[in-house]
Amino acid sequence: MQFKGYQLDPFQEQAIRVLEQGESVVVAAPTGAGKTLIAEYAVELARIERKRIIYTAPIKALGNQKYRDFGTDYPGEVGIVTGDITLNRDAPILIMTTEIFRNTIFDDPLRLEDVSHVIFDEVHYLDDFQRGTVWEEAIIFAPQHIRFLCLSATIPNLEELARWLTTVREVPVHTVLEHARPVPLRHRFCVDGRLYDSVKGWKPAQQSRGRTHRPPRQSQKEPDPLLEHLERTAQLPCLYFAFSRNRCEDLAWRHRKMRLLNEDGRRAITKQFDELVARYGIHDTARLGRVRALIERGVAFHHAGMLPSMKEVVERLFTSGLLRLVFTTETFALGINMPARTVVFDQLTKFDGVDFSDLTSRSYHQMAGRAGRRGMDKEGVVYSKVEGRFMTSSRVKRIVFGKPEPVHSQLNSCYATILNLWALLGERLYDAYEQSFHFFGAPRSQTGFVREQIVRKLDVLTALGCLSDGLLTQKGRFAAKLYGQELASAEFLFSGILDKLEEVDLAVLAMAVVFEQRGTLGLTKADKNASRNVYRPATRIVGHIHELERKHGVKDGTEPLDFRFSAFIRAWAEGCAFEDLVAWCERDEGEIVRHIRRVVQLLRQMHSAAAGYDDLRARMRRTIDLLNRDVVDAEKQMRAGEADETAAATKQRAADDEESEVRQ
Question: Is the domain covering 2-177 a CATH 3.40.50.300 domain?
Answer without folding.
Answer: yes
